[in-house]
Amino acid sequence: MYLSRYLSGRRIRIAALTALTAGGLLGMTGAAQASMAASAAPRSWVVIDTCTGLAGKITYSPGLRTSTLRQVQATATGTTSGCSNIFNGPEAGTGTFTAVLSGKASVNAENFTGTFTINWPAGTGFNPSNGTLSVTESGGVETISGTVTSGFDTGCALSSQYTITGKTGSGTKKHPVKAQTYTNTQALNLSRNEG
């Protein structure tokens, strides 16, 4: 009888110890899983280089008509200012932005694809950033998006917005818009998915 009670008590203690150990291991596993989930969290975009100012001119061939969409070649040139780098801080001086574009466009709807080059302020010593981009118009605001494919900041995403501030020509068949001036409404940013 004593032996029976002893063995029974021992079984209860072993069962309790097993449950406690399993619970502890499960808790540790849960903590490990939470840690792994945190390290697998979505990565975030970080602005590496930015220029608060971008303004210049776009020329069109053939010129734009007010509402008639047609295939157009365009060249955008501009000056960048207020540039800074996430690591080096503000950059003195100005740089340049150039884009060679093509697409179906009118005065009221400009949608282009093409290539771009950003020449950074001379004092930075940075190589030019080259890449591909698209320009889409909505409600009078032109949105630039693209990717740096070579040079400084290769792999970064390009983004900006601008509005038209002036034009040469009226948009008629006889006097198409041959050129427009523009200024940015959103900084020219190069961003990288850093996490």
Write a structural description.
- The chain has one helix at 2-39, and strands at 45-64, 70-85, 89-90, 95-106, 109-119, 129-138, 141-151, 157-168, 177-193.
- With 195 residues, the chain is α+β, with helices and mostly antiparallel strands.
- Strands 1-2-4-5-6-7-8-9 form an eight-stranded antiparallel β-barrel.
- A hairpin with a 5-residue loop joins strand 7 (141-151) and strand 8 (157-168).
- The protein is elongated and about 50 Å long.
List keywords for this structure.
195 residues, AOC barrel-like, 2 domains, eight-stranded antiparallel β-barrel, 1 helix, 19% helix, disordered N terminus
Question: Could you outline the blueprint of secondary structure elements for this entry?
Answer:
Layout: H1 2-39, E1 45-64, E2 70-85, E3 89-90, E4 95-106, E5 109-119, E6 129-138, E7 141-151, E8 157-168, E9 177-193
Number of strands: 9
The unreliable regions are 1-41
Helix tally equals 1
Computed CA radius of gyration, to the nearest angstrom: 30 Å
Oligomer: single chain
The helix-strand sequence is: HEEEEEEEEE
In the CATH hierarchy, what is the class of the largest domain?
Answer: Mainly Beta
User: End-to-end span in angstroms?
Assistant: 66 Å
Name the beta content range.
Answer: over 45%
Return the domain count: 2
Q: Specify the CATH architecture of the largest domain.
A: Beta Barrel
Q: What is the averaged pLDDT score?
A: 84
What is the molecular shape? elongated
- Predict the CATH topology of the largest domain: AOC barrel-like
* Sequence of strands across the biggest β-sheet: 1-2-4-5-6-7-8-9
